[in-house]
Amino acid sequence: MGGIGTSPCDLDRQFAPQIAQLLAAPPLQSAQEYYDELIRSKKHDGIKLSYGGKHGKGVCANKDFAEGDLVLKDQMLVGAQHSLNKIDCVVCSYCFRFIGSIEFQIGHRLYLQSLGASVDGTNERHCHGSHAGSSTGCSGATNGNSSAVPQEVIMSLMDGDMSLPLTDQFCLPSVVACPGGCEEQVYCSQSCADSDWDSYHSLLCTGSKTEPSRKAALQKFIRHANETNDIFLVAAKAITFTLLRSKSMKLMNQTFCSLWKPGNHFQWASKRDIDSSEEDLFRQQIRDLAFLSLQLLKDAIFDPECAPLFSLDVYGHIIGMFELNNLDLVVASPVEDYFIHIDDLPESEKEEAEKVTGPLLDALGEDYSIPCEGTAFFPLQSCMNHSCCPNAKAFKRDEDKDGHAVIIALKPISKDEEITISYIDEDLPYEERQEQLADYGFTCTCLKCQEERPV
Ligand SMILES: C[S@@+](CC[C@H](N)C(=O)[O-])C[C@H]1O[C@@H](n2cnc3c(N)ncnc32)[C@H](O)[C@@H]1O
Q1: Is the CB of 56 inside a 6 Å radius of any atom of ligand 1?
Q2: Could you tell me the distance, in angstroms and rounded to a whole number, from the CA of residue 437 to the centre of ligand 1?
Q3: Is there an atom of ligand 1 within 6 Å of 385 CB?
Q4: In this predicted model, what pLDDT tens digit does every residue of 151-186 receive, in sequence order?
C-alpha cells in the first residue's frame, strides 16, 4: 500500500491471491451476465450496458429519450442513512421512504431535539465523517427551539394522539418493526423488513434475538462508526450482503463483481486537501481507523469460509468506492411539503391552520425541511461515465419518494448513444474540474474539455 508500510492485517498476507482475485476487474462474461440479469429483472428497458469502450463499461440508451424523460430509476444495492440524519428523519431502513405520519416525524424530531441527543445515546450531537476527506457532510444542525413546545404536545404527536390540520393529504406508510427486535431499524412494510433482513440485517441486528456476545460486539462496531465515519456502516452492509449470498470463493467473486469499480484501490480518502509531506501520516491514520473498525466488525460477524472478505485490502476497496464515488442518497422530506402546503392555503384557512402549525414550525427551526441523507451504491448509475457536458443527470422528481437514484435526460438522447452524467459541478472552470476528476483517476477529454483546455 504505497508509502505507508506493510498492512497491519494478517489476512492481507494470508489470503493475498484470493484477495487479488476479488479486487481484480471481473471477467467480462461475469460482468455481462450480472448486468444483463439486473436490467432484465428490474425491467430497465430504456438502457443497456456497453463493455470495452474507451472508458471501460458504460450505459447506453436502448431507445430514444426526449429532454426531461426518465432514463432510469436505479435501486440501490447497499446504502445507509447518515447517523446524524436519523435525528431529523425517520425513514424505512431498506427503501428510505419517510414513515409513520407527519405528526410522528415532527414529534420525533422535537423529542430528540429536546433531549439534545445524538443517535448513539451520548449527549452531544456529533458530526459523522469527522476525518478529513470524508464525503459525508454534516447535516442535522437544528436551530429550532423545542422547549417552546410542551412535552405533552410532543408526546401526543409521536404517539398519534394529536392530529395536525390537513395531514390526511400527506399520508405516510405505518411503521413496521425489525423482525430481530432491534429499535435501530424500522420499515415501511413487511416486505422491506424481510428484504433488509435477508440482504444485510440478519447479521447486523442488535435486537433481543441476537446472541449476547455478538450483540455486544456489533454495538461496539456501530458506536465506533458513529463516532468516526459512518461510511463503515455502509461498508459493513456491503460485506454482509456479499456474505449472505456467498458460501464459496466463486460465489463471493460473483457477488463482489457488482461492487467493482475501476480506480478505487487503496485510496482511503481524497488526497487533494493534503500537503504531500503529511500525506503518508494522514493515510496511515485513516488506515488505522479502518483497521480498528474492521477488527470490531470481525469480532461480530467473522466467517472463516469467507475470510478474504475481512481483509483490510477488501475493506479499503469498499470504503474507497463509497468515498470516491460520492454516491449520495437523498429523499425529500414530506414535512417540507406539508408546511409549504399550509403556507399556500388561502389566507383565512392558512391563518386558522397556522395557529396549530406555526409554533411547531418555529420549534423545528430553519432546518424543518431536512431531507433523508445517506450514502448508497447504485449498480447501474455507477456504470455511467462522466462528461462535463452530460446528456443526463440525477434528479429527484416530486413523485420519487424513496431512495432510488433517478436519472433524467437533459437533452434528447438517441438510441445507442452513451448516457453520461457529471460527477462534479460541470460549471467549474477547466482546471478545477480536472483537479476534482483526478480523484476519480482520470483526465476528462470530453468536447467541452477539449475546447477549454489551455494550449
Ligand atoms: C463510476 S465508474 C463508471 C463506470 C466505469 N467505466 C466502469 O467500467 O465500471 C467511474 C470510472 O470510470 C472511468 N471513467 C468514467 N468517465 C470517464 C471519462 N470521462 N474519462 C475517462 N475515464 C472515465 C474512470 O475510471 C472512473 O474512475
Answers
A1: yes
A2: 10
A3: yes
A4: 999 999 999 999 999 999 999 999 999 999 999 999
CB 332 within 8 A of CB 395: no
Between the CA of 54 and the centroid of ligand 1 the distance, in Å, is 9
Q: Does residue 261 have its Cβ closer than 6 Å to ligand 1?
A: yes
Predicted ipTM beyond 0.90: yes
CA atoms within 13 A on the CB side of 11: 20
Q: What is the pLDDT of residue 412?
A: 98
Q: How far is the CA of 31 from the centre of ligand 1 (A)?
A: 15
Of 380, 385, 430, 447, the one to substitute when testing ligand 1's pocket (max ligand atoms within 8 A of C-beta) is 385
Domain ranges of the chain: 82-211+330-371
Cα–ligand 1 centroid distance for 444 (angstroms) = 10
pLDDT score for 123: 35
Rg (CA), the chain: 23
Mutate to test the pocket of ligand 1, among 77, 386, 418, 434 (most ligand atoms within 8 A of CB): 386
- Ligand 1: does its nearest atom lie under 6 Å from the Cβ of 53? no
Q: What is the pTM of this model?
A: 0.87
Task: Give pLDDT tens digits for 290-316.
Answer: 999 999 999 999 999 889 999 999 999
pLDDT band at residue 234, thresholds of 50, 70 and 90?
Answer: very high
Residues 300, 298: Cα–Cα separation, whole Å: 5
Express as a percent the part of the chain with pLDDT over 90: 65
Choose among 318, 361, 319: nearest CA to 343: 361
Residue of 374, 259, 239 whose CA lies nearest to 308: 239
pLDDT at position 56 is: 87
Ligand 1 atom with least separation from CA of 420: 16
Of the candidate ranges 240-244, 388-392, 420-424, the one whose mean pLDDT is the lowest? 240-244
Question: How far is ligand 1, taken at its centre, from the CA of residue 384, in Å?
Answer: 7
Q: Is the CB of 386 under 6 A from ligand 1?
A: yes
Ligand 1 pocket member 441 (CB < 6 A): yes
Cell 483526478 maps to which residue?
438
The x, y and z cell numbers of residue 270, run together, are 481524497
